[in-house]
Automatic annotation (TrEMBL):
This is CCT-beta. It is found in: Cytoplasm. Belongs to the TCP-1 chaperonin family. PROSITE patterns: TCP1_1, TCP1_2, TCP1_3. Keywords: ATP-binding, Chaperone, Cytoplasm, Nucleotide-binding. Its main location: cytoplasm. Heterooligomeric complex of about 850 to 900 kDa that forms two stacked rings, 12 to 16 nm in diameter. Pfam families: Cpn60_TCP1 (PF00118). PANTHER family: CHAPERONIN. GO terms for molecular function: ATP binding; ATP hydrolysis activity; ATP-dependent protein folding chaperone; unfolded protein binding.
Length: 536
């Protein structure tokens, strides 16, 4: 090949660039660590909140978000660095999979990479680092499972555990002061699901006004809609037809339609034909013999009148989510054609009572005693929409974690206990491993220990001292010790009632180590411009 001096022949096109080896790795480390450092200060019960504010033209007045939730912060960030994107991605996945630990996972991955960077500077090859991390991860996972405990699902202990887990999840959120209240509320909501893992049955309604203490759990399902005028407001033993169909053309729609006629009579004729079509459709619906008709779309006066005259209560223009939930809770199918009235028994939903209720100043429709008797609604009140949104996110986190716990049943102590135990396991292992991998295993232990360290730092406590004391307590065999974040000491987690779901920790450990490994493997970043469309 013809290489002149140091100049390589150009392989990539003009707009594409490439970063190689050290440079590429450095870029990844910098990006990932920066992202981790950004959310670091929100970790733990004394973590700080962040305000997210959209910028750009026309965005100044839009909604700001005040949050402590790692996933929410990371999701709203727009980054260019590929490694940073990977971290954001794992935090999102953590949120979707288990609902909590979203900050932990990003911080842990960041800390692993920080340690990884030091190892590389010591001239340890990335492959050795990765090999060591893998050993460390398996050891940590094994220890994590060993220290977890399981209770019978119907026992009082399990119920208490759930409350404690909910409290731990909520403790870093805006509603810290009311966490006992909300922990009970969330546990009751999840227990109503009777083991089902469909969060759709728990509906959250946010109504500005009052204080967050005015929030409550209501059984049954609440739809943010009003019953159409002229219909019955209270229906017992309702048979519900849920539909997504057009019921809005009893008049000619003028927009975009061109009809040429030579007299007004003709217009009337067309209108009559449209009406006839509508009547036909209503007749088909009536064959199902529902007592309540819920439609996703608007219902115009004429069909509404027809339905109301037949004694059917009409709810129109329900939002899509609401409608899906009505269908799920009452066991209905969403119909868009009405040609099989013989299937009425299967497709109609049932509930004991539908009535109009007032929450705050708003009228809503409540479905109680639903066929799938699992649905319930959490009504959130609060002084402003920002508070309500954050409470909503916190409650959602707690519900997700509780559902995961009900499925998985295993719990571990919180307050940094599990991370310290895992770190100890890694250090024990490092003593047995020969070769350079041992350094990587020790590094893994240090990264794990950073989690309680950061929790301490965020509370303004002396982390160096506390973590050392923590180590000693564990060494003494004090299995349930952990960070007491009110006094800044090492306390008993069973007395403080700080528990966490095993799945959350497992998922965080796995995802963080996988992401760190992925980023560690990088030795080349190619930025490519999108392919241009060829001119024909
Ligand atoms: P994440 O988004 O990762 O869940 P959090 O800000 O919720 O982050 O912090 C979770 C960490 O805080 C966990 O490691 C948990 O053990 C710890 N933690 C939560 N509540 C307490 C508490 N009351 N005392 C000590 N540690 C706590
Ligand atoms: Mg949390």
């Amino acid at each position: 090949m013809d290489i002149v001096g140091n100049v390589l022949p150009q392989v990539l096109k003009d707009e594409a660039t490439e970063d190689k080896g050290e440079m590429a790795r450095l870029q990844s480390f910098v990006g990932a660590i920066a992202v981790a450092d950004l959310v670091k200060t929100t970790l733990g019960p004394k973590g700080m909140d962040k305000i997210l504010k959209p910028t750009g033209p026309g965005q100044e007045m839009t909604h700001i978000t005040v949050t402590n939730d790692g996933a929410t912060i990371l999701k709203s960030m727009y980054v260019e660095n590929p490694a940073a994107k990977i971290l954001i991605e794992i935090s999102k996945t953590q949120d979707e999979e288990v609902g909590d630990g979203t900050t932990t996972v990003a911080v842990l991955a960041g800390e692993l990479l920080r340690e990884g960077e030091k190892l590389i500077q010591k001239r340890i090859h990335p492959q050795h680092v990765i090999a060591g991390w893998r050993i460390a991860r398996d050891v940590a996972l094994k220890r994590l499972r060993d220290i977890s405990s399981e209770n019978d699902i119907n026992s009082q202990e399990f119920h208490d555990d759930l409350v404690k887990i909910a409290r731990t999840t909520l403790s870093s959120k805006l509603i810290t002061s009311d966490r006992d209240y909300f922990a009970d509320l969330c546990v009751n909501a999840v227990l109503r699901l009777k083991g089902s893992s469909n969060l759709d049955y728990i509906q959250i309604i946010k109504l500005p006004g009052g204080t967050i203490r005015d929030s409550y759990l209501d059984d049954g399902f609440i739809l943010k809609k009003q019953i159409t005028i002229g219909c019955k407001r209270r229906i017992e033993n309702a048979k519900i037809l849920v539909a997504n169909t057009a019921m809005d053309y009893d008049k000619i729609k003028i927009y975009g339609t061109k009809v040429k006629v030579n007299s007004m009579d003709k217009v009337a004729e067309i209108e009559a034909a449209e009406k006839e079509k509508m009547k036909h459709k209503v007749d088909k619906i009536l064959k199902y013999q529902p007592t309540v008709f819920v439609n996703r779309q608007l219902i115009y006066n004429y069909p509404e009148q027809l339905l109301a005259d037949s004694g059917i209560t009409v709810i129109e223009h329900a939002d899509f989510e609401g409608m899906e939930r009505v269908a799920a809770a009452t066991g209905a199918e969403i119909l868009s054609t009405f040609d099989a009235p013989e299937r009425a028994a299967q497709v109609l939903g049932h509930c004991d009572l539908i009535e109009e209720i007032m929450i705050g100043e708003e009228k809503m429709i409540k479905f109680s005693g639903c066929k799938k008797n699992e649905a319930c609604t959490i009504v959130l009140r609060g002084a402003s929409t920002h508070i309500l949104d954050e409470v909503d996110r916190s409650i959602h986190d707690a519900l997700c974690v509780l559902i995961t716990t009900v499925k998985n049943k295993r719990v571990v102590w919180g307050g940094g206990n599990s991370e310290m135990q895992m770190a100890a396991a890694c250090e024990e292992e490092a003593k047995k491993v020969q070769g350079k991998q041992a350094f990587a295993i020790e590094a893994f232990a240090r990264a794990l220990r950073q989690i309680p360290t950061i929790i301490c730092d965020n509370g303004g406590y002396d982390s160096a001292e506390l973590i050392q004391n923590f180590k000693v307590e564990l060494q003494k065999g004090n299995q349930n010790c952990g960070l007491n974040m009110t006094d800044g000491t090492i306390g008993s987690m069973s007395e403080l009632g700080v528990k966490e779901c095993l799945r959350v920790k497992e998922q965080a450990l796995m995802a963080a180590s996988e992401a760190a490994e992925l980023i560690m493997r990088v030795d080349d970043i190619v930025k490519c411009a999108p392919r241009k469309r060829e001119r024909a």
